[in-house]
Structure formats: structure tokens, C-alpha cells
Design a protein that fits this description.
This protein is α/β, with parallel strands linked by helices and 322 residues long. It contains ten helices and twelve strands.
């Protein structure tokens, strides 16, 4: 199993609401500085503990994940993390200029000596509305953006692009990526999409390995199942879902929230032996790469660090060969 560490850069202060968007007035400047210092400390620790990569995603208007510019954060990571790969799992293409994204990721690949991994995402409906993009077009915009970026990384000569959503007279990305033909690119999906992915790969004459299937989740590893349950059971997490985004999505988001999934515990939760068993079940489902955030409401910063260290010491050696 390949194992990555997701540092969500969660706000070190205590905002008075979990609604979205969160008012800037609730953002304490000193807490922001503490948040960024903690983030660098955790990234450095993850590198020392042997995680295969550290990852960053893109989110807006919220203290839960304070990385509105994953490229800036990834650039800082290259100066902190010297061994592990750097996974930029979440540039939101409906909010971005894909040529700029191609250039910045290529630059990051050079800055990191070829350690960049990338996943392009569409984003949730509320985040698509951050920059007044049209949610109805988000999926198609994302796919065209991916096609354009991959072409920009592999085409040796300047070229023009006339698409439905993007038009450029000339594209000629410098620098080239250090990795040839380009860095590994993941795609977001669910179990059914994994099957489609494998079918498409077979038509192209190759077979994906388990390491090509990545799953991102929360985890808390304590000294025992009882302690892990006690540490995490006081709080629940809600995740908003949107399925078919209609033309009235802006109005519907204002009038009622997206469908919610409620989690009463992290995906991986327990003592080391229990977590090893949980990872075994995940591996049986075809997953070969994990991106883990050791955060949960109510957990102290020290508990997060201890959970990371316990995972690296008592779990990671047992799941490497799964």
C-alpha cells in the first residue's frame, strides 16, 4: 500500500460557525499564523515518518481547509519536504485557467526534482460558485481542461486550441515537466468509475495496478479501540453532496443546503490492530493508495501528532505489502 499524508491546514482558532461561507470577521490573524506554522511542522514530521507523499487540495471561504491556492502551498512544501512526493490533489479546473495550471504544475515539478503527483477536480457546487462559474458546465469544463493540460505537457511544438470552453491562439508551456512525459495524474471517481477506468485501460492495452486506485479519508489511531472511540465519538462531521446540478443550482443552494452525509467517526478509527484490519478490507476492495488526514472535530493538535506517529510506527510497517 502507498500511503500519503493530507494536511488540510485546518484553522487553529475557534470560529463561531460551521456555515459556508464563513465571515472573514471570525478569522483571527494570530490563529492564521499559528495554523501555517503547525502545517509546516506536520509536513516535516510526515516526511520524517516515511509517508510516501504529502498532499494539498483547493478549498474556499472556509476555516476547515485553508488552501485557496494549492500551487502557492505546494511551492512552500518543496522547501519543507525533501524526500516524499508532493501530491496536488485538487486544482479546481472550473475556477482556473488550464494553461496557467499546466505552467505552474510544470514549474512545481522542476522545483521538487520531479516529485509532483496531480489530481484535477471539478469541485463542489458551492465552490464552483466562488468565482461565478456556471455549475451546469463544470464537468465538461473540467474534462476539456484536463485534455488541454495533458496536451500542453506532451506536445513538443507550439499549438492552438479551439475548444468549447477554452480558446488559445498559441500554447507553448515552459518549463517542461521533469517527469516524462508528465507527472502521474489521478482521476476522481467511485467504485463504478474504477471499473470503467479499468475497462478503458484494457482497451488501450495496459492494466492498472492497485496503486493506481487512490482513496482519501480521515483517520484516528489511538492506543486502543476504546480510547479512539472516546476521542472521536463526541462530534459528527457532515459532508455536503450534490448529484445532478441543475440550472437552478444557485437558487437551490441559497434556499436549502446540498444533501448531507453524516459521519460519526473517522473512516479509520481504533487501536493499531483494528486499523490494520480496516485497511485490509480497503485493500480487498481494490484500493492500493491512501491519502490520510489525521484530523477530527475535538481532537487536539497534540492528539493529531500522536495519531500520525502511532500510525507510522504501529500500522504502516504491517500494510506496506498488502
Amino acid at each position: 500500500m502507498q500511503v500519503g499524508f493530507l494536511n488540510p491546514v485546518s484553522y487553529a482558532g475557534a470560529p463561531a460557525t460551521t456555515a459556508w461561507p464563513v465571515a472573514p470577521a471570525l478569522c483571527d490573524r494570530e490563529a492564521v499564523s499559528a495554523t501555517m506554522h503547525r502545517a509546516k511542522e506536520q509536513l516535516r514530521l510526515a516526511d520524517e515518518l516515511g509517508f510516501d507523499w504529502v498532499s494539498v487540495s483547493e478549498h474556499h471561504y472556509s476555516p476547515r481547509i485553508m488552501t485557496p491556492s494549492p500551487m502557492i502551498y505546494a511551492g512552500a512544501i518543496t522547501e519543507v519536504v525533501k524526500r516524499a512526493k508532493i501530491a496536488v490533489l485538487g486544482p479546481l479546473l472550473p475556477l482556473s485557467n488550464p494553461v496557467r495550471v499546466a505552467e505552474e504544475l510544470a514549474m512545481l515539478d522542476a522545483m521538487s526534482d520531479g516529485r509532483i503527483i496531480v489530481l484535477f477536480l471539478r469541485g463542489t457546487a458551492n465552490e464552483i460558485l466562488t468565482y461565478r462559474s456556471n455549475p451546469d458546465e463544470a464537468q465538461a469544463v473540467t474534462q476539456e481542461g484536463i485534455d488541454l493540460i495533458l496536451h500542453a505537457w506532451t506536445e513538443p511544438q507550439p499549438f492552438g486550441w479551439e475548444g468549447r470552453y477554452f480558446n488559445y491562439r498559441t500554447v507553448s508551456v515552459w518549463p517542461r515537466t521533469v517527469q516524462a512525459p508528465h507527472r502521474p495524474v489521478f482521476s476522481s471517481g467511485i467504485k463504478q468509475r474504477v471499473a470503467l477506468y479499468k475497462d478503458a485501460a484494457a482497451k488501450e492495452g495496459w492494466e492498472p495496478t492497485a496503486e493506481n486506485v487512490l482513496y482519501r479519508f480521515w483517520a484516528h489511531v489511538a492506543e486502543s479501540d476504546e480510547v479512539a472511540e472516546r476521542n472521536t465519538s463526541r462530534f459528527k462531521v457532515q459532508m455536503g453532496l450534490t448529484r445532478n446540478m441543475s440550472k437552478d443550482v444557485t437558487k437551490s443552494l441559497r434556499e436549502s443546503p446540498p444533501e448531507k452525509l453524516e459521519f460519526d467517526r473517522p473512516f479509520l478509527c481504533g487501536g493499531p490492530a483494528t486499523v490494520i484490519d480496516q485497511i485490509g478490507a480497503l485493500r480487498e476492495a481494490g484500493v492500493g493508495a491512501m491519502d490520510i488526514a489525521f484530523v477530527w472535530p475535538g481532537l487536539s493538535y497534540q492528539q493529531q501528532l500522536e495519531s500520525m506517529e502511532r500510525f507510522a510506527r504501529d500500522v504502516l510497517p504491517h500494510v506496506r505489502d498488502l
